[in-house]
């Protein structure tokens, strides 16, 4: 098989695996009449393919630069500053690479709308169904982290005026309304506001912690232990959970794929990914190192509460929009997958019909409710993200992309020494995914069990403040 390459406005596919010609199967990826695209253009009905690459990059930014940035400083406390920084750089590099693999595979096998469609290409119908379920579970969990983060913000702004679960319910209803906006293009303005909201909120906290003599949560008189370590000494359970948390902060790349189907020029996908991940990596590294250096073990999770009461309210007031938009995007992406699966090849997919709208609202409501239930059941911010990172993102964002690359590059196995090394490194990528899935899930489950046992979590659906502050 040959490596997929770009040729003008065409995407040259990997070697054909059946008698159908590559032109018939793929055509021009940007041809408005392209029958292999999920959403058609110029044929009446709802026009979905309207997103430019800059807008796509901002959507990607909001998907990635969201709740993850609020947990990395506390993960660094467990690992230490140096291993924490290596984890940030290493995981974000891998996440960027696997995002490119997924985009290239999608553009070489046109007609794929989601990671589940790509799984079907390499593993058949059963692979599609399994990956589809993993995809939905993944974005239900990270959607829950957004709902939970928004409830923490509302708690902080209102001085815990009502039960936390009521704030979660308010957050869920808001997220459902926002996520029900039908097209990525129409929520592009939300992503701009959402990204700036979280970025500014985190920046305020970064500045705020450096102006204090000691962390806000530390004893304000007498000697105290800052808890800053260049190299930490965590247990396996704590270490793997923290590594999974950092990995999860940039692993939502499978959410990029539905956006490609709504891009005017799908071949511009790589530019959008590189811009997004460069900003994310630089921001994560600088913000988390500064907050951990000044707060040590007294860092809060989410980290917006690390600089004292006043700055906490300011940061959450500004960041609330971003937290809601994050959850909105996660729910929207998962609902769009369900929507396309249900109505694909139906006239209702791009028709403003009762069936079209009722299916769409049914998908967004279902995902919103599931996220609310998860947020109430595991009400500790770090553990929600670590669970997503290990249980679902590891196979979805590392394992499957590794196999997608192997599927299109079998010729590397018997090529030059360099090609052979590259080929087997992708098997190593799959092995890393397996280790993170098994080891990380065990670590998170054990920490959740311990949290219930020692009273850190009182009970599911309780009104106690389980903000997860360290």
Automatic annotation (TrEMBL):
<keyword id="KW-0812">Transmembrane</keyword>
<feature type="transmembrane region" description="Helical">
    <location>
        <begin position="130"/>
        <end position="153"/>
    </location>
</feature>
<keyword id="KW-1133">Transmembrane helix</keyword>
<feature type="transmembrane region" description="Helical">
    <location>
        <begin position="354"/>
        <end position="374"/>
    </location>
</feature>
<dbReference type="Pfam" id="PF01490">
    <property type="entry name" value="Aa_trans"/>
</dbReference>
<dbReference type="GO" id="GO:0015179">
    <property type="term" value="F:L-amino acid transmembrane transporter activity"/>
</dbReference>
<comment type="similarity">
    <text>Belongs to the amino acid/polyamine transporter 2 family.</text>
</comment>
<protein>
    <recommendedName>
        <fullName>Amino acid transporter transmembrane domain-containing protein</fullName>
    </recommendedName>
</protein>
<dbReference type="GO" id="GO:0016020">
    <property type="term" value="C:membrane"/>
</dbReference>
<feature type="transmembrane region" description="Helical">
    <location>
        <begin position="421"/>
        <end position="445"/>
    </location>
</feature>
<feature type="transmembrane region" description="Helical">
    <location>
        <begin position="187"/>
        <end position="209"/>
    </location>
</feature>
<feature type="transmembrane region" description="Helical">
    <location>
        <begin position="236"/>
        <end position="260"/>
    </location>
</feature>
<feature type="transmembrane region" description="Helical">
    <location>
        <begin position="159"/>
        <end position="180"/>
    </location>
</feature>
<feature type="domain" description="Amino acid transporter transmembrane">
    <location>
        <begin position="50"/>
        <end position="445"/>
    </location>
</feature>
<feature type="transmembrane region" description="Helical">
    <location>
        <begin position="380"/>
        <end position="400"/>
    </location>
</feature>
<feature type="region of interest" description="Disordered">
    <location>
        <begin position="1"/>
        <end position="34"/>
    </location>
</feature>
<keyword id="KW-0472">Membrane</keyword>
<dbReference type="InterPro" id="IPR013057">
    <property type="entry name" value="AA_transpt_TM"/>
</dbReference>
<feature type="transmembrane region" description="Helical">
    <location>
        <begin position="314"/>
        <end position="333"/>
    </location>
</feature>
<feature type="transmembrane region" description="Helical">
    <location>
        <begin position="272"/>
        <end position="294"/>
    </location>
</feature>
């Amino acid at each position: 098989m040959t490596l997929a390459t770009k040729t003008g406005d065409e995407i040259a596919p990997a070697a054909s695996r059946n008698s159908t010609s590559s032109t018939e199967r793929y055509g021009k990826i940007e041809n408005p009449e392209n029958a292999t695209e999920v959403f058609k253009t110029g044929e009446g009905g709802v026009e979905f393919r309207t997103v430019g690459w800059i807008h796509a990059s901002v959507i990607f930014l909001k998907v990635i630069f969201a709740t993850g940035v609020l947990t990395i400083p506390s993960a660094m406390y467990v690992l230490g500053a140096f291993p924490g920084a290596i984890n940030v750089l290493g995981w974000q590099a891998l996440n960027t690479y696997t995002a490119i693999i997924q985009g290239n595979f999608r553009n070489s096998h046109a007609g794929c709308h989601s990671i589940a469609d790509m799984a079907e290409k390499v593993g058949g119908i059963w692979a599609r169904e399994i990956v589809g379920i993993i995809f939905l579970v993944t974005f239900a969990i990270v959607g829950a982290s957004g709902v939970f983060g928004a409830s923490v913000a509302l708690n902080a702004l209102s001085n815990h005026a009502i039960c936390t679960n009521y704030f979660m319910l308010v957050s869920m209803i808001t997220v459902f309304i926002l996520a029900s906006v039908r097209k990525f293009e129409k929520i592009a303005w939300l992503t701009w506001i959402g990204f700036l909201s979280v970025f500014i909120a985190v920046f305020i906290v970064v500045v705020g912690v450096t102006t204090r003599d000691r962390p806000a949560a530390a004893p304000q008189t007498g000697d105290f232990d800052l808890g800053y370590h260049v190299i930490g000494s965590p247990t396996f359970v704590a270490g793997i959970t923290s590594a999974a948390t950092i990995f999860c902060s940039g692993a939502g790349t499978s959410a990029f794929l539905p956006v490609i189907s709504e891009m005017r020029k799908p071949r511009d996908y790589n530019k959008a990914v590189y811009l997004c991940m460069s900003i994310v990596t630089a921001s994560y590294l600088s913000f988390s190192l500064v907050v951990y250096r000044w707060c040590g073990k007294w860092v809060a999770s989410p980290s917006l509460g690390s600089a004292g009461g006043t700055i906490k309210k300011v940061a959450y007031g500004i960041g609330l929009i971003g937290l809601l938009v994050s959850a909105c995007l996660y729910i929207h992406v998962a609902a769009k997958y369900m929507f396309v699966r249900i109505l694909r090849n139906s006239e209702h997919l791009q028709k403003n019909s009762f069936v079209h709208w009722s299916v769409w609202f049914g998908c967004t409501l279902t995902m919103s409710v599931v996220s609310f239930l998860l947020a109430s059941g595991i009400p500790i911010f770090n553990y929600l993200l670590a669970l997503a990172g290990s249980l679902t993102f590891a196979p979805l964002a590392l394992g499957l992309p590794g196999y997608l690359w192997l599927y299109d590059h079998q010729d590397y196995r018997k090529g030059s020494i360099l090609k052979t090394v590259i080929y087997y490194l992708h098997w190593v990528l799959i092995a890393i995914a397996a280790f993170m899935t098994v080891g990380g899930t065990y670590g998170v489950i054990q920490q959740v069990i311990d949290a219930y046992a020692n009273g850190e979590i009182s009970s599911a659906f309780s009104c106690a403040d389980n903000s997860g502050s360290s």
